[in-house]
Write a structure and sequence with these properties.
The protein is mostly helical. The chain has one domain (2-178). 77% of the residues lie in helices and 0% in strands. The chain has helices spanning 2-43, 50-71, 87-122, 135-164, 168-175, 180-194. α3 (87-122) packs parallel to α5 (168-175). It is globular, with a radius of gyration of 21 Å.
Length: 198
């Protein structure tokens, strides 16, 4: 259990850095698109490639934020029925959801590796004016997916261990859907932290 907790702590640190990196990419692409639009409107010139680069930034930024989203349980879940179920059944459903997510992302990562491998083998370039070597954005995209798996594996194992030992609150804390009360408490704490100190 200690090993899994350390692994989760490491994954949490990596995911914090990754979400800042991904967010920075998306902000930079938004800035580039805004500059391109202004230049076209005011001076009839273009930066060129801003749409292509923003597409890469969005894909990369999204995958780099997945681990952080998972650890914060910030993903959208339909929980109208879930909140009325017994705690043991909720815990089993939480583990099943993590397993299904793991299988899906594992398949996606495997296919992303195959796409990257093909791009490297053929030295593929985008059919755009920038002619971007496709391995560059694909490698960063794959790295985000790999980081997500690095985060998902210890979370799943830790939640499964908690289920097997009967620690249902831990399963809920690790993998359960966030409650309205949890969201409200987080918002209240955030709002309190923004108030100026006298």
């Amino acid at each position: 259990m200690l090993l899994l907790d350390r692994w989760l702590g490491l994954a949490d640190r990596f995911s914090r850095w990754a979400v800042w990196f991904g967010g920075g990419l998306i902000l930079a692409s938004a800035f580039l698109v805004a500059v391109d639009v202004l230049l076209r409107k005011l001076f009839l010139v273009t930066v060129g490639g801003s749409d292509e680069l923003s597409g890469y930034a969005f894909a990369i930024g999204t995958t780099w934020a997945l681990g952080f989203t998972l650890l914060r349980r910030a993903n959208v879940r339909v929980d109208a029925l879930y909140s009325r179920l017994p705690a043991a059944l909720c815990a089993i459903l939480d583990i099943a959801a993590l397993l299904a997510l793991g299988l899906f992302v594992g398949l996606l990562t495997w296919q992303a590796w195959a796409v990257l491998d093909t791009s490297l083998a053929f030295n593929a370039k985008a059919t755009t004016p920038l002619a971007t070597p496709l391995w560059m954005p694909q490698l960063l995209w794959l790295a985000g997916l790999a980081l997500f798996i690095f985060t998902l594996v210890p979370l799943l194992l830790r939640a499964l261990l908690a289920l097997l030992t009967g620690d249902l609150p831990a399963v809920r804390r690790l993998a359960g859907a966030r409650t309205i009360e949890e969201d409200a408490a987080d918002e209240a704490a955030h709002t309190a932290s923004l108030k100026p100190r006298a």
